[in-house]
Every structure is written in C-alpha cells, then in structure tokens.
Amino acid sequence: MTSELPEERLAELKSAFAAIDADGDGYVTEAELRRHFPDLPPEALAELSLAADTDQDGRYSLEEFIRAMA
C-alpha cells in the first residue's frame, strides 16, 4: 500500500497524521479529529469511521489513515 505512493505524498500524509495526533501515541482518535477539524460534520466522522477504521478499535493508525487519504 505505502510502496505504491510517491515518497513526497507519503511524507505529506505522515506529516498530516503527526499534526492531528495531538498526544503522539501513534493513533488519531475522533476527539483529535474534531479538535483539528472543528467544522467537520458528525456524518463525515461516521463515514470516515466506517471506511477507514478497519479494525474498528475507535482510532486510526497511520496505516489506516494513509489508506483512507491516499
């Protein structure tokens, strides 16, 4: 998956993930997404959860984030 992305795009996604991951634990939670994107409608968060949170643990790993945003 990540090997298919150009290095520049992969670096952009990693940087965006790090900016959203406020506590630096390696996961992005819905709370962190709401803080980073305060105008994001709840419906968009629900759609993202269905599409991107593949292991349904309520948070997004870097791999899940890249897969969703690529």
UniProtKB/TrEMBL annotation:
Membrane-spanning parts = none
For molecular function, the Gene Ontology terms on record are: calcium ion binding
Query: What Pfam families does the record point to?
Result: EF-hand_7
Provide the protein name: EF-hand domain pair
**Organism source for this protein?**
Nonomuraea pusilla
Annotated Gene3D superfamilies: EF-hand
| Limits of the EF-hand domain | 8-43, 53-70
